[in-house]
Amino acid sequence: MSRRSRPPAPSGDGSFRTAADLPAEVDVLVVGAGLSGIGAGWHLQHLSAGRSFAIVDARDSIGGTWDLFRYPGVRSDSDMYTLGYRFKPWTNPKSIADGPSILEYLRETVQEHGLASRIHLGVRVVSASWSSPAARWTVVVEAAGARRTVSCGYLFVCAGYYRYSAGYEADLPGLEEFRGRVVHPQHWPDDLDHGGARVLVVGSGATAMTIVPAMAATAAKVTMLQRSPTYVVARPDVDRVALLLRRLLPERLAYRVIRRKNTAFQQLFYRRMREFPQQARERLVGMVAERLGPGFDVGRHFTPSYDPWDQRLCLLPNGDLLEAIAAGRAEVVTDRIDRFTADGVRLASGAEIGADIVVTATGLQLAALGEMALEVDGAPVDLGATYTYKGLAFSGVPNLATSFGYVNASWTLRSDLTCEYVCRILNHMAETGTSTCTPVLRPGEEHMVARPWIDGFTPGYMLRDIHRFPRQGDRAPWLNPQDYRRDVELLRRDPVDDGVMRFTRPA
Question: What is the mean pLDDT of the chain?
C-alpha cells in the first residue's frame, strides 16, 4: 500500500465507512474528515445530540492536511496545546509536533469517541443545491466514478481552504530543461532519496523552512532560493511551563490552564507586533543576527519589506533552520530566477546554483467550500459576491456553515468556536420548530463598504484567490475579525437569534 493510502486505524465499531454505507438522508452532512471535520463530529455528538449526521471525505484516509503532506519534517506551525482540541488534551511532551504524531492524535480522537461509523471515505462532494420549499440540501457526491445524491437539513463544510488536488506551480522558466528530479511538497514521492544530493528548495514560506533543515541532515547541501525574505521566530519545541503544570495539576485541568495561557500569549504577541511594527521588526531581525553572527547578511536574507504579520511569521522549532545555516549544511540565496538549466538554475545576478533535486515550495491554491458548486433555489451562488456572516456563513445562503481557523493563531481555536456555534444554531431551530436559518442583510447593508475576507494579510497565496471568498462588511455581524476575543463574543456569547440570522419554517 502506498504512502498516499495509509490504512486508517480502526475505531468505534472497528471500521470506517464507504460511499455504499452513506445514508440517503441525514440531519447534518459534514464535509471533510480532517482536524475541523473530526472536531465537528465530536461537537455534534456532545452538544447537539439526537441529530443524525455523517462525515464524508474525498480521500481514502482521515486526517486532511496531516495525511496529505508527507514532505520531510512536516510539523505544526503553532503549539499543540492550542492546535489540539479543547476536549482532548495533548499529552505528547513536544508542543511543536511532527505530522505523524498529529495524525495519531486525530486517530485517537476518532477511536475514543466512536466516530469511525460516521466517517465515509472516498466520497467527494461535487455540488449542493438548496430547496426552500423542502428546507433541504440535495448534495451530489462521487465515489469510484459513480454519482449519487444525499439529502441533508444542514451542510457543514470542514474541507479546509486549499486545493488538495494540486499546489500552486509558479512560472519557473526552463524548468523542463532540468535533468534532475522536480517535486512539489504537496505531492511528495515515496521513492525520493536525497542522501548526499544537492537540493534546491524554491520558496521562502513555512513549507520551505520546514523542508530545508530536515533535508539538510543527510543531503550534501540544501539551498533555499527566495525572491524576498520572510520573518522567522525561533521557539523551543517543548513548553517547559506546560510540562511543569502537567506534573502539578490533574491532566484536564492542566490542559485547560496551558491552553488559556498559550492562547493569551498568541493574542498578545500578535497585537504587540501590530501595534509596534518597528520594534517587532528590530527584535525579529536581531534574533536572527544573534544566531548567525556578524558575517551573515541578515538585512538581505531575513529582513522583509513589509511589517510583521502582514504575512504569517515562520516558526522555527529550536531555530532548526538557523542552526543548519550556521553549520554550513544549508544556505539562503535571495535573488530572482533567470532560467533553469540542465544542471541547476541561473539567477538574475548571473550566479548559478547546481542541483540534483529541485523542490518547488511555491505555495498553495485556495479553494472555497472544497470546490463544490453551490446553488440556492436553482440560482448559482457566487461566494465572492456574498458577505461573510461571523466568518462562518454567507449572506443569503441558508443552513450552511464553513469552518475556517486563524491565520494569526492556531486553527483549532476558531474551528472549535465555529462547531459550538453550529450546534447552538441547530439546537435553537429544534427548540423553536424552525427548519431554516439564513443570514440576511438588513436594509441599506447591501451598500456596505466591502473589505477582503481576511483583511491586512498579504501573502501571495491569499492575494491570488481571495476573490473566491466572501467579503467582509464594515459592521457586526458581517465580520471575520481573526481575533479570538472578539470571536468568543460573536460566537459564544451573542444571541443566536440576533435579527440578522433569520429563522423560518417552510411555507
Answer: 94
